[in-house]
Design goal:
By secondary structure, this protein is mainly α. It contains 20 helices and six strands. A four-stranded mixed β-sheet has the order 1-4-6-5, with helices on both faces. The longest helix is centred in the last third of the chain and has 30 residues, at about 410-440.
């Protein structure tokens, strides 16, 4: 494979001299060549911009620079993200997560086939299959999944952080991962990267002019005139959020909506073990509301007081003034709104709302049995797509009958070793118990003589020895007469 590893080796000194401060001659020469090449490339780029600006009207240089950089970023987006994240390609038979071994290529390939089968039913003859995207991993302990749509679906990529592939920390099984991957593949299928790139180019242009106007009066005037174009920033975020909503609803139609809702919950709180149904939560919220306001001007302000009562959290103290709770709610929700306004990803609560409405019976489910029926219905919807997939492309772990969990051989070996240790410990405890029973007195009452006891018995003074000692003590000695 073509790479520049030989250049990296050539520009790294293996045996520097002068206490490690002076590289060898070949390294110095390679560094000079590399620096000259970089400087030459920058000079050519600057000359090209200046030459173009000479034949274009106002702001030509700025516009040309922004358009040129945007075009390069769009055309080489996959390759740029590949080296920016210091990624590694996921090859065949790569398995991740020792707690739930995941064959990532097989998982993504089956979901890709499901996406193709779904859109084939939707678009018919106009449908075009998307190929397998490039799968890459990078080191980051946080859950991150980056989608690069590329200049066409054949140049797409999905980047997984190391934290996203650790089910022990994320609490996500392979069915959850399949639902999240389906969202990324839907965005790749719709081929909306060009529109997002154009909006991003407008944003870059506005930012460049905004920065330039501080040093030049003419730029300052023009920058002030185009200041309203800052809405490009909000527009770009809004467009990307709309992609998330659209992809989530498509995943619901594919029969993975329940898994996607669970995955979103685990992304927000990985240690979430159990939660009530949506209906139970709504009933609990309603049961803990304040009593309806019946004070002065009740008929006029009841709509406002009812709104305040809905905004209070179920566990909040409700003995204070309603107007203060209203101010708290406005500050909180305004903060949520501003955060989401500048974020390309929607708030999880807002993302789940249309999904709950799109799954028939979800908001009415009151117990686990009702939820189990919704899971079963999802699996049957997904089974129709699963039948369209060739056997060689199937990954049974995330299929309609798959649990999303694979018991690893390492875990089995660890369990076997643990059982052996427990068995040895039980035997040692049994032997110790037998020793204690043997040390107890016998039925005849005679003590069991151990080596230590025998030693003590041998040193015991007999009666006749006591008498002889007394006689010797009573007999006077010559020293005492003196």
């Amino acid at each position: 494979m073509f790479n520049f590893s030989w250049m990296a080796q050539a520009t790294t000194s293996k045996h520097p001299r002068l206490y490690g401060l002076l590289p060898n001659f070949s390294t110095m020469l390679a560094l000079l060549v590399a620096s000259a090449a970089i400087a030459g490339g920058l000079w050519v780029w600057s000359f090209g911009l200046a030459f173009t600006a000479a034949f274009l009207p106002l702001f030509a240089k700025t516009v040309a620079a922004v358009v040129g950089m945007t075009a390069l970023n769009f055309w080489f987006s996959r390759e740029i993200n590949t080296f920016m994240f210091s990624t590694r390609e996921v090859r065949e038979n790569f398995k991740f997560d020792e707690h739930n071994p995941t064959d990532l290529r097989k998982l993504v390939n089956q979901v890709r086939c499901e996406v193709n089968a779904h859109f084939k039913k939707v678009y018919g003859d106009k449908h075009q299959d998307i190929p397998m995207p490039r799968l890459l991993t990078f080191t980051d302990h946080h859950f991150k999944m980056v989608t690069v749509e590329g200049r066409n679906p054949g140049k797409a990529a999905i980047l997984f952080s190391s934290g996203a592939l650790n089910s022990h920390d994320t609490n996500l099984n392979q069915r959850h991962m399949a639902a999240l991957v389906a969202m990324q593949l839907v965005k790749i299928y719709h081929r909306r990267s060009l529109g997002g790139t154009l909006v991003g180019m407008g944003l870059d242009l506005v930012n460049t002019l905004e920065n330039a106007r501080s040093g030049n009066l003419f730029y300052r005037v023009i920058g002030f005139l185009i200041w309203p174009l800052q809405f490009f920033l909000l527009l770009q975020r809004a467009i990307k959020r709309s992609y998330e909503y659209d992809a989530a609803l498509t995943v619901v139609d594919m029969g993975r909506g329940m898994d996607l809702i669970d995955a979103i919950d685990f992304k927000v709180c990985p240690v979430l073990f159990e939660k009530p149904t949506y209906r139970r939560l709504a009933e609990d919220q309603a049961s803990k509301k304040r009593s309806e306001y019946n004070g002065p001007f009740a008929s006029w302000v009841r709509w406002f007081t009812n709104w305040i009562d809905k905004q209070e959290y179920a566990g909040d103290d409700k003995t204070g003034w309603r107007i203060l709770s209203a101010i708290d709610a406005i500050v909180r929700e305004l903060g949520f709104f501003i955060n989401e306004l500048f974020d390309p990803n929607p708030r999880s609560t807002n993302l789940k709302t249309p999904m709950r409405q799109a799954i028939p019976g979800y908001e009415q489910a009151s117990n686990q049995a009702d939820l189990d029926r919704l899971y079963a219905r999802d699996r049957e919807i997904n089974r129709d797509l699963y039948k369209e997939i060739a056997k060689k492309d199937r990954y049974e772990v995330i299929g309609p009958d798959g649990s999303g969990v694979v018991k690893s051989a390492h875990a089995h070996e660890h369990s076997h070793k643990l059982k052996e240790k427990i068995t040895r410990l039980e035997k040692a405890i049994a032997q110790l118990s037998k020793g204690r029973v043997a040390s107890k007195p016998t039925k005849g009452g005679a003590p069991i003589t151990t080596q230590h006891a025998r030693g003590k018995a041998s040193t015991k003074v007999q009666p006749h020895q006591v008498a002889d000692s007394a006689k010797r003590a009573a007999k006077p000695t010559s020293k005492r007469h003196h």
